[in-house]
Every structure is written in structure tokens, then in C-alpha cells.
Amino acid sequence: MSIVVFEDPQCELLAPITLARLAATMTCGSFRLVDLVGHLCDEVYGISRPHLHTLQRIDFPELRLLDEIPIDSKRQERAVKLLLNARIAPTKQNFLRIQQLYRAACQSAPNSPPMVVRDREHVAAVVNPPWTVEQLFGYGYLAAEDWIEKAKSFEDLDCELVTIALPHELIATNMACIRENLEWRIELGACRSENGAVTPTVSELRQLSDGLFLAEGATIGEYVITDTRKGPVIIDRGAHVGPYTLLRGPIYIGPKARILEHSAIKDAVSLSHTTKIGGEVEASVIEPYSNKQHHGFLGHSYLGSWINLGAGTCNSDLKNTYGTVNMEYGFGKASTNMQFLGCVMGDYSKTAINTGIFTGKVIGACSMMYGFVTSNVPSFVNYARLFGQMASLPPEVMVSTQQRMFARRDVQQRGCDVQLIYDMHRITQMERDQFGEALAL
């Protein structure tokens, strides 16, 4: 019995978050969908955008790619019990509902009719789909829209699954789910499995004080103040919190993360592994290997991987009018109904010292910012609008930068990492074209 996690065309509207990563690997509330689904069954497959296939195969073997087997092969085709949208938010409630759907599908009769779970106008899940694993991979991502459209005609199943459709929704969902997700982590860390239930694997945790939990190898400096009245603080394996720091939960500090001295980390922060954080961070998600180690404010924002924020970099997350923030995406404006909303920054981007990012800005991957960021920034751009300078960045520059960054973290640069830079440059060309003559070549 198989589960297939599929990316749909809406994943492309989640850029820059999903430009360099599978949608199922977005961090939200300290979890990723891939962390949750992989524990439901032994055969989980992933249908993804073609430029991410190699990374999927190497870095996420739990999301299997099907070997190229002709659909008419004599080999027995594999039945699919559950189709899951890769944009499903990795919340405790979503996981429990997915678990119920999978169990019900496995117990259903062989020819049970397919049923669909919707979130807004999108297909969130299909129970007992009429396609085999081989057929779905035969269609592939580029033809996914056809069978997704057909799935909308299936009978609706009364089940709620929350999906993330646009970048700002990830920030809002992180704030909404992180406390419950962290309390679930604590519960799972104390007792791995109850009544034979299938649950994600998490680190064993010990309680250092009320609401403060540490995993093996985690350390905490002197004179650290913790406020856990609104949610717990979890410091995962090998992470370190420097002295004279404020931790106001709910907060998740991932494995091998470092919080520098005199920092203030507060109110729904989810830090992935090997991040290095200083200054003030509030209600934000930061993906692996990103640095914000100097003074400066980051609030209600999302940072991808391998980002570096220079000293004094700050973002605004509140308009002077105190009104709700509208985001400007490639397809037009989107109302967020959020009063506090900072920035969304794609992988490999960098800011110079004292960079100021205005409210609700979207910054693409592999870009460099200087001065004030008053507008959205395309991918692969040197952005110094304050000084009247904007220029495109060749992918070769980012390949060299990637190599130097990786070496500092003892990470080997692979051919697929280099190819990803070139693929992202190709995919984002339209972003730079929209800037027209304002972007010097």
C-alpha cells in the first residue's frame, strides 16, 4: 500500500520558498511534511518538479522516485491508497487526520470509489485514487494538472486538511500551529509510542525548568531568561544558547543551532538545524545553514537556507498606518489579513551591513541587498536601489559563492548543487525581465 506526495502547479506560486526545495520539505512549526508522512508506511513516493529530482533522490530518499518502468510492463503495478498534496501544512492536526485517512483507505474494500479532500479550491488529498504509482509517475509533474482536475469530480470527503498556498501563509500557519506542535514534540519525546500509534521520531527531551526542554548534547549559558507562559522552549540535539539571552516561547531551536549572547528569540520562532542566530528574532521561520548572527531585528518573516544577514540588518513587520499588509507577488497583489508581516527571502540571498527591508517584501533566491529594500527583489540580482544601482548576477558568481559557503560549514559541493543554481537562474529569468531597463546587464 503506497502513499504518493505530489506537487501541484500552486507550488510554483510559493516561490521563492519552493524555488530550491521540495514543497514537502518546507519548515513550519518545527516540522516538515516529509518528517510526518514517512512514518505512515514503507512506500512513500514523491512527484516533484523536474529540476528537483536529483536533490530528491539524494537528500530525501524517503520520498521515492519511481524507476522508469513502462506503464504496460508485465511487472505488477503498485496500488495507491492515499494521494497527498505536498503543500499540506505539517501540523499535528493535519498529521492525525492523514493518519486516519490512510488507515481507513487500507481497511476499505478493493474497489472502493475514490474520494477527495479539498482545501479552498485545491485538492489536498485523494483517498483510494484510481491510478497506480506507475501511472502517476507516467503522467509526471508536467501533466499533474490533468489528473488533479479529474480528482475534483470525485465525491467530497468531510475532512479538513490545511494547505499552504502562498508564502505569507507559511508565516501565519507557523504562528498558529507552533505551540501545539512543540507540545506534541514534548509528548513524543517523553513516550515514543502509545497504543501502537505511528508517530514521528523526535529527540528524547529532558525538562530543565518549567516549559524549557533540552535534548541530548544541548547546552545553555548563564543568565538566560526563559518565559514559557505562551508556549514551551525546545533546544534540540547539540544546539547551544549563549548567555544573557531571552527565550520567550513558543520556540524551537533545531539541532546544532547556535544562539549568540545577548539575543532575544521570542513568540513563535522555528529555527532549523545548523543555523546561527543573534539579535532580535520574532515569529519567524529560518531554514538550515542560514546566519543572522549580529544585532538587528527580524520579525514575522521566512528565511530560506544558506542566507546571511549582515550586521544591523532589520526588517519592518508593521506598516506606519497599522493596517493589514498586502503582498505583491508575480501574479499580482494578495490580501493577507495580517497586521504583522515581514519579508520572505529565498535561498542563498545576502544582505550587507545596515540593510533595511520594508514591510511585506519578497526577495528572490541568490540576490544581494544593500541599503534600503523598498520593493520586491528578483532572484539573481545585485540590489542597491538607494544608490541607483541594480544589476543581474551571473549564476557563475553564485556557484563560486556556494562553494565558499559550503566549505565554511564542511559541506561538500556536489554537481547537483551547482546544477540547481543554473536551474534556478533559468526558471527565474522572467522575474528579471519584468524589471526591464531598470536592471543593468
Any idea of the CATH topology of the largest domain? UDP N-Acetylglucosamine Acyltransferase, domain 1
The helix tally amounts to 9
| Through-space gap between termini | 53 Å
Mean pLDDT: 93
Can you name the CATH architecture of the largest domain? 3 Solenoid
Q: What is the CA-based Rg, rounded?
A: 22 Å
Helix content: 10-25%
**Quaternary organisation of the protein chains:** single chain
Q: Can you tell me the CATH superfamily of the largest domain? A: Hexapeptide repeat proteins
Query: Which CATH class of the largest domain applies here?
Result: Mainly Beta
Instruction: Write down the domain tally.
Output: 2
Biggest β-sheet strands, sense, barrel:
9 strands, mixed
> How many β strands by DSSP?
35
Rough outline? globular
Strand content: 15-25%
Give the low-confidence spans: 192-196
SS-derived structural category: alpha/beta
In spatial order, strands of the major sheet run 7-8-11-14-17-20-23-28-31
Overview of this protein structure:
With 441 residues, the chain is of the alpha/beta class. It is built from nine helices and 35 strands. Strand 26 (326-329) and strand 27 form a beta hairpin. Helix 7 (395-408) packs antiparallel against helix 8 (415-427). The longest helix has 24 residues, at 167-190. The N and C termini lie far apart (53 Å).
